[in-house]
Design goal:
Elements: H1 20-24, H2 27-30, H3 35-54, E1 60-65, E2 71-75, H4 92-98, H5 121-127, E3 129-138, E4 141-148, E5 152-153, E6 158-162, E7 169-176, H6 189-202, E8 207-212, E9 219-223, H7 229-236, E10 247-253, E11 256-264, E12 271-276, E13 279-280, H8 286-305, H9 318-322, E14 325-332, E15 338-339, E16 345-346, H10 349-369, H11 371-401, E17 425-430, H12 432-441, E18 447-452, H13 464-468, H14 471-480, E19 497-501, H15 506-522, H16 524-528, E20 532-535, E21 540-544, E22 547-551, H17 554-563, H18 566-569, E23 573-576, H19 585-593, E24 600-602, H20 608-619, H21 623-638
Parallel strand pairs: 1-8, 12-14, 17-18, 17-19, 19-20
Antiparallel strand pairs: 1-2, 2-7, 3-4, 3-7, 4-5, 4-6, 8-9, 10-11, 11-14, 12-13, 15-16, 20-24, 21-22, 21-23
Helix pairs in contact: 3-5, 8-10, 12-19
């Protein structure tokens, strides 16, 4: 390094003023400038209205996607204060929308409970919008201010009209800046709808109206759930067969409110959702831990007292008592401490005991008052315990026989020679014939091939003991190296990419769905951390003269043929690929396996609740929800290009 050419002094230190820092580094404030970050802008404004509802001053919120793809959020709360702020010398409305960390959520006077604790929501939306308009209804006056050019006020807040004394609230309209959101500035109605429904469930009695004024067919839906979390659990369980009515427990101690609703169903999976001040705590936290420990304790105590468990029986585990359980935990806390920048986990230690005590007392009382319900819950948990013990024996037996011993899989698994997990890929292929082509077409240095026989067991309808006795699934567990169930360890994963390579037909799609169900239910971190892909083998081989073209689907086939000169079209030969085994090794390598030419579909879990619901509908025991889904989506499924 030539030190004489390196200049670094006080002139190199930049000071970003106002909202310029937000525009320069938007990811620090909204996570990403992709579609997710775009929709996050809506929630920043909606959260302010929700905070008014939590404080008891707001009953109705309306969200409108306007024709120009701007968004309007209206509420009937108290309205943002309009007076001159004592520190900034400008109106409080302008202060809130132009200064970071300015809000009514710090001192405890404005809001006792709030989701947005950093005071950056309104100002960040302003900074990342082409323009923002704020209208406040307060003191029989209508106040208005407009911001442009990265959050700069056009003129100070002014009174533009009169209104009735009864009318109060705030209306905000903003238009996302395409210079910031380069990927898209188009709002997805279904994404907004999912979160709006969730917010309505979490705030019983609050009406949220969602409108879409774009296009010819306008949309307007109203979400109001006076039953709150009980209705949420009912909604989540709508595709299952519940074992009893919803159980609801609520209590408040030390200004901490705990709400829990739960219901068991006849499946083998469990769904736990937890929230703090309406924020989804996907990583759990002390509120969830308190409820879980109380659930296990109360069920074990009841089972022993009423002889469902004998004296020498081992106690039920947390997994036993949660099998088939759908439970929603909501905590309202005046000063929540979140772990991690994403607010994914609650860290307040005092909440654990509060949640455990409130839920434990309420749940115990519910079991005592409803012995028939208690009996069903006990029997469900004890059946789960028996299956767990059987699964443990099956796992031990498999190891004894070598079923989970990698050395016994070499005759089936064609492993790669690289020892570096980061460059290793595992192709799970359909059938021995595909195995032959894939084995010849692969890069033996980095690509391993594992064939499976047709359609594997549907794990959505099976317990772990039955799953572990399935030869095909055992071979997958062995190849992955992570083990399964309570022994799962992603750090032992032997391959960076797990690629599902099935035929480009209906049977292939079914096999892929079965494999995804297995991975989602028992290896979900592999999907969450981006290790799972679907190969995209061509459906058609199109030949004319010396030219060969492979296409993925009917749409691509038609587009390619229509692009050819008319005199060539009559000479085109179209072969529908019967399967991977029908392709020679060179074609399979060039179209599906070569990292320079192939197309892979990365499997993501954008919304775990929706993913869980979809697997239940498509692969679960209940036929009616599946039939309804197919009927409602027949046209879109027919036109789907995967």
């Amino acid at each position: 390094m030539n030190k004489e050419t390196q200049h670094y002094n006080e002139n190199d230190i930049q000071v970003l003023e106002g909202l310029e820092a937000v525009r320069r580094r938007p990811g620090m404030y909204i996570g990403t400038t992709s579609s997710r970050g775009l929709h996050h802008l809506v929630w920043e404004i909606v959260d302010n209205a929700i905070d008014e509802a939590l404080a008891g001053y707001c009953d109705d919120i309306e969200i409108i996607i306007n024709e120009d793809n701007s968004v309007t959020i209206k509420d009937d709360g108290r309205g943002i204060p309009t007076g001159i702020h004592h520190k900034t010398g400008i109106s409080t409305v302008e202060t809130v929308y132009t200064i970071l960390h300015a809000g009514g959520k710090f001192g405890g006077g404005g809001y006792k409970v709030s989701g947005g604790l950093h005071g950056v929501g309104a100002s960040v939306v302003n900074a990342l919008s082409s323009w923002v308009e704020v209208t406040v209804y307060q003191d029989e006056k209508v106040y208005f201010i407009r911001f442009e050019n990265g959050g700069k006020s056009v003129e100070p807040l002014k009174v533009i009209d009169k209104c009735s004394k009864e009318r109060t609230g705030t209306m905000v309209t903003f238009k996302p800046d395409p210079e910031i959101f380069k990927e898209t500035t188009v709002f997805d109605y279904d994404i907004l709808k999912t979160r709006v429904r969730e917010l309505a469930f979490l705030n019983k009695g609050l009406r949220i109206i969602l409108c879409d004024d774009r296009g010819i067919e306008k949309k307007k839906e109203e979400f109001l759930y006076n039953g709150g979390l009980k209705e949420y659990v009912h909604y989540l369980n709508r595709n299952y067969t519940p074992l009893h009515d919803e159980i609801y427990i609520e209590g408040i101690r030390d200004n901490i409110t705990i709400e829990v609703a739960l219901q068991y169903n006849d499946t083998y999976n469990n769904l736990t959702l937890s929230f703090v001040n309406n924020i989804n705590t996907g990583d759990g936290g002390t509120h969830e831990e308190g409820v879980r420990s109380a659930l296990t304790r109360i069920i074990n105590n009841y089972a022993r007292e009423y002889k469902f468990l004998k004296e020498n029986d081992e106690s039920l585990t947390g997994d036993d008592v949660r099998e088939g359980l759908t439970i929603v935990v909501s905590c309202k806390h005046p000063d929540p401490q979140f772990e991690g920048q994403t607010k994914g986990r609650l860290g307040n230690g005092e909440v654990r005991k509060v949640a455990s005590d409130i839920f434990g007392e309420g749940f115990e009382r519910s079991l005592m008052e409803n012995p028939d319900v208690a009996k069903k819950i006990m029997e469900k948990a004890i059946q789960a315990a028996r299956a767990r013990i059987a699964a443990k024996k099956a796992r031990e037996l498999s190891r004894t026989r070598g079923g989970l011993d990698l050395t016994n899989q070499w005759g089936k698994l064609a492993d790669c020679s690289s020892k570096n997990p980061l460059e290793r890929e595992l192709f799970i292929v359909e059938g021995d014939s595909a195995m032959g082509s894939a084995k010849l077409g692969r890069n033996p240095q980095t690509q391993a091939i594992l064939p499976i026989k047709g359609k594997i067991l549907n794990v959505e309808k099976s317990r772990l003991d039955k799953i572990l006795s399935n030869e095909e699934i055992r071979s997958i567990i062995t190849a992955l190296g992570t083990s399964i169930g309570d022994e799962f360890d992603i750090n032992k994963l032997r391959y960076n990419k797990i690629i599902l390579m099935t035929d480009a037909d209906v049977d292939g799609s079914h096999i892929r769905t079965l494999l995804l169900t297995l991975l989602y239910r028992f290896f979900r971190p592999l999907i969450e951390e981006g290790h799972v892909y679907a190969a995209q083998p061509p459906l058609y081989k199109i030949s004319h003269g010396k030219t060969t073209k492979y296409v993925l689907n009917d749409r691509e086939k038609e587009e390619y043929i229509n692009s050819l000169p008319e005199e060539v079209r009559s000479k085109v030969n179209i072969n529908r690929q019967k399967g991977l085994g029908e392709m020679d090794a060179i074609d399979l390598r060039n179209t599906t396996m070569d990292i320079e030419q192939r197309i892979l579909l990365k499997i993501n879990i954008e919304d775990a609740i929706l993913a869980d619901e979809m697997f239940t509908i498509l692969m679960g025991e209940e036929v009616a929800p599946r039939r309804k889904f197919i009927e409602e989506n027949a046209l879109s499924v027919r036109n789907l290009d995967i």
